[in-house]
Amino acid sequence: MATIRKIEILNFRGIQSLVWHPQPGLNCLIGPGDCGKSTILDAIDLCVGARRTAQFTDADFHALKVDAPIDISITLGDLAPSLMSVETYGIYLRGFDKDKMEIHDEPTVGLETVITLNLRVESDLEPVWSLQSDRAAAAGQSRNLSWSDRVDLAPVRIGALSDHNLSWRRGSILNKLSDETADASTALLAAAREARKVFGKDADKNLTKALDIVTTVAGELGIDVGAKARAELEAHAVSVTAGTISLHDEVGVPLKKLGIGSSRLMISGLQQSNASKSSLLLVDELEHGLEPHRIIRFLGNLGAKNKDSKLQVFVTSHSPIAVRELAVGQLFIVRKIPGGHHVLWAGDHPDLQGTLRVHPEAFLARSVLVCEGASEIGLVRGVDQYLSDAGKKSMHAEGTCLVDAGGYKKIMSRAQAFQRMGYRTATFRDDDYRAEEVEETAFEALDGKIFKWREGKKLEVELFESLPVKAVEILLYRSLEDRSEQEVDSQLRSYSDNKVTLEVVRKEIGEGELSAASRLALGNAAGGNKEGKKSWFKTVSDMEEIGRDVVVPYWAESDQDFRKIVKALRDWTING
After folding, report:
1. CA angle 196, 198, 201 (to 5 degrees)
2. Which of 344, 427, 443, 575 has the most CB atoms around its CB within 10 Å?
3. Are residues 189 and 148 in the same domain?
């Protein structure tokens, strides 16, 4: 079982330069479209895969610069005994320091023994595979892995079209399941239809082990193949070769006719059974063709929940369902930077695990607005809903996601974590309680944006002090839908030293003019937090309705400074 320790890519497609140390187990690459996720999988496949040649064009060179060679190096650890043979590969064996993530050209006590595979393509478009070693280069030596070792190392790739893995053909997962051979010699002597019958009988005996594994895996995944899967010749094949022997269900229907999702599930399950021999698995767009519950099952097959998984898996995804099922230590964000790419590890921020569970879409966004609580999220969403319904830009279309920090004490730590992972990041908070000034200053110095209400004020106070009387009346009556008049009156008295009552407020609303004292009492009462009093509008849906049905419709009549804050916030969410 081999494990990739280091990946180095130069001048390959959209990637000018990249160095990445992946983790054992599952590595999920996320990031915006065209950031290089699939290119990384292609680089692994081309460098480590069992192939004698590969087709390259000028378009495979970064920026079409064919004078800058494509150079891909993959360093592998957890080597099988055959790969650590001093007689065979001695001068190519190297040492890897796991703590410092450093490769030494000579294996040394205390270092893991590793080997580095290299693929180089120059302007003649001819790929050259070789083992990398400074000692070998100095001695003028060069060689590749033996073919049998390449076959053992070769990753299995599950893409949109992976049904070749459900036939016994070169490089397929079925060929790796056992040492049994699919011998069609007897069947070749008969006519095509008769050969199919004859071969089917023999195959059940010759491929018993592989077919038993297939049947077991299919049952575990809920894929119906009948009592036992069978191996038969393809009836439509012109010539009968090893590639025409494929899996069929009990009545003879080819399993290649399964839907895309079922095929991918089956192949991942078979790869788990084969992990002791081939431990590398590549999956592009893992959610492709799968319903949500099958995405979760697929991730289970890939070892996502198994800390001791034998597989090292590289997947790409744009699915929040998939991301939510993972640990932050399994997520890697691919970013373009001047002169190249880098891969940032979400595992550097373990405190984001809760955010990952509740707001997985944030990790797939371009911009992240970290809000103090549910009220702030609701207000922003409500404003966006009103304006997008009116034909304006939507923050969701612009790739902005809202995250609930769960209070002012957590807002900066979460915002800074997203900022360090390369997301365009801002915060939105009340000003009655504040984060540490030194943290906010450092955040702003790195282009973070801070949105807050006016000095000492919280959201509810801003609303009741800034909206026109008609809008305040709507807010008041919304509060009375969920609580009694006596409760509201008691809260108003409590927050105003008995100077403001519900009767006073109603009288002023009727006269069309609210006093500053009444507005302040209403805002503080709506915000709660005194003597265990709950706020009036503390859920996302509550404040969403207020943003959509009250704030924007009464925009022109509202306080000018209040409008400036909301407009600046709105502009940030749609101009990512």
Report:
1. 105
2. 427
3. no
Asked, for residue 523, whether it belongs to a domain, the answer is: yes
Cα(541)–Cα(473) distance, integer angstroms: 19
The whole-angstrom distance between residue 445's C-alpha and the CA centroid of its chain comes to 28
- Same domain for 144 and 82, yes or no, is yes
What residues contact residue 224 under an 8 Å CB cut-off, 6+ apart? 218, 249
Using a cut of 0.90, tell me whether the model's pTM lies above it. Answer: no
Digit-coded pLDDT (tens) for 478-528: 999 989 999 999 999 999 999 999 999 999 999 999 999 999 999 999 998
Examine the fold and report which residue of 248, 273, 298 is the final residue of a domain before the chain moves on: 273
Q: What is each CA distance from 2 to 93, 96, 129, 343, in whole angstroms? A: 14, 14, 18, 22
**Residues 141-160: pLDDT tens digits?**
999 999 999 988 999 888 65
CA distances from 256 to 244, 259, 260, 368 (A): 12, 8, 9, 42
Q: Using CA of residue 518, residue 519, residue 525, residue 530, what is the dihedral sign?
A: negative
Residues 537, 375: contact at Cβ < 8 Å? yes
Tell me which residue of 331, 469, 433, 381 sits closest to 31, measured CA to CA: 331
pLDDT mean across residues, the chain: 87
Residue 285, H or E segment: none
Query: Do the Cβ atoms of 406 and 463 come closer than 8 Å?
Result: no
> At residue 197, does pLDDT exceed 50?
yes
Report the alpha-carbon distance of residue 56 to residue 127 in Å, rounded.
8
Terminal C-alpha separation, the chain: 44
Range of the domain at 225: 165-273
Would you say residue 160 lies in a domain?
A: no
- Residue 128's domain is classified under what CATH number? 3.40.50.300
Residues 151 and 195 in one domain: no
Residue 268, token pair as written in the block:
């991942």
Whether residue 253 is found in the same domain as residue 375: no
- Residue 269 has what pLDDT? 59
